[in-house]
Each structure stands twice: as C-alpha cells, then as structure tokens.
Amino acid sequence: MKLFQLKLLKRGVSVARYNDGSQRSAELLEDLGISWYYNWGSKDFADNINAEFVPMVWGTNNMDIKTLNSIRDGYEEGRFKYLLTFNEPDVYSPGISSGISVERALNLWPEFEKLGIPLSSPAPTNYYTGWLDEFMDGAKERNYRVDFIALHCYQNFADENAVNELRNQLIEIYEKYHLPIWITEFAAIDIWVWGGHTGNPDCTQEAAKKYTKNVTDMLESLGFIDRYAWFIDNTGSYNETRASEAKYTYLYNNDDTLSETGKIYKD
Known about the structure:
This protein is of the alpha/beta class. Helix content is 31%, strand content 15%. Helix 5 (162-177) packs parallel to helix 6 (205-221) and helix 6 (205-221) runs parallel beside helix 7. The radius of gyration is 18 Å and the shape is globular.
C-alpha cells in the first residue's frame, strides 16, 4: 500500500513526461515539493513519490468494470481520496479531449456515484463554452452528487490583466456553485499558436516567470481553491519533441535541471 505524507499544500502537477515509473522521474517530481499529481489515467506509475496520486477516468472508453473496480478498491484501501472525471468533454480531439455530450455524461454519472469516492465535475477546455453549466444544471435536476469543480485555465500569460481576470472568473464560478474548485490544468503556454495562428512575441521567459509567480500567489490566496496542477509538459516521453509554444511551461530542462519557471513554481 502506498503511503504519503499529508501536506498542507495546494500545489500539484499534471504529468506525462515524468510518468514512466523510473526512480529518476520520481525524484524529479519529489523535488518539486508537490502534494499531489495526476496523469490523466487511473494507474499510478510513480509509486515511490511522497505525494498523493489522484486517478482520472478520462473518457467513456475508460469506464470498464476493471477500471472502476480498481478505483473503488483503491478508495476503500485508502490509496485514493478523490476521482477526476471526463477530460475536456466539450471538444473531441483523439487523445487530447474526450468529446462527450452532456446527456451522455449525465447518463453515465450513476456509475461514478456507486464508487463512493468524492467526485470532480468533468473539466471542460474552457468554462465559458457552456458545457459545465449545462452539466451542473442537469446534475442538480437529477439529484446527482458532484463534490468539487474541476477547471482548465489557459490564458495569454503575457497579458498584464490575466491573473486578475482569472481571479474574477473563479469567484464567479464559486459563487454560482459553492463547491471547492480544483484547477487541474494551467500553464505558461503561448495560446496564440492554437488554431494555426502566429505566436505572440510578448510570450517571453520573463513574462512566464512573472505570470507563474502572480497566478500561484493568487490561487493560494483564495480559500475555495482546494488544489491546482501545473501542466508540467506537453509530451509523453523523453523521445518526443517539445512544442515551442509550451517551452516556458516546462518545469525541467532537458538535462533535468529546474527551468526558470520550475524554480518559481517550486518556491
């Protein structure tokens, strides 16, 4: 049974690159001083790290009996404390976003409730797509249990107003649902390149450092933010090429030294 030290920290990571089960990867995650992490799956590949693993059911194809039973058993044995549900159901993109209709998600929800484990809402790509509000309204109508809200929050990190805008958005969501909020993905990524656009020249290392410091300070200051997870990398293995638009979100350089962003996030 995996044991982890309880830490009064909100800080965590969403991780794929350092999720190979090796001792070195565990050491790198451990060195960040995080209290929790997840890998978009239900299996923990870093059993030797002193931080809490949170399983996820990424999409409908992951709702097989074996996976659900494993999550239930892990919760009953004290290895798991929470479950993250459906990743980005508001968009369909194979391997990235699960693309699940609100009606389908609601119809499957009783299978989650049977596990007895505290449940996140599904996490949309963006709160303002409307998917989450429609889901939460349907869950209320059906008297379903949702224990906390999960959000992805990607911003133009070079915008001086970004952190304050996010703060206001989070307050708006909390005042609407009065549930704890987990930011399960956020990062210093140049979102201007999404959709084939040219990158934003203002997205520099200095801007990333400033954003990382200010946004984490803000999240720490809000009592209803229970946890947050930095999108540590955008690659699944060391053999994959790192995307240039995400270079400032890397917490580690290729030689496994802390990046400039990583030093700030760790501190």
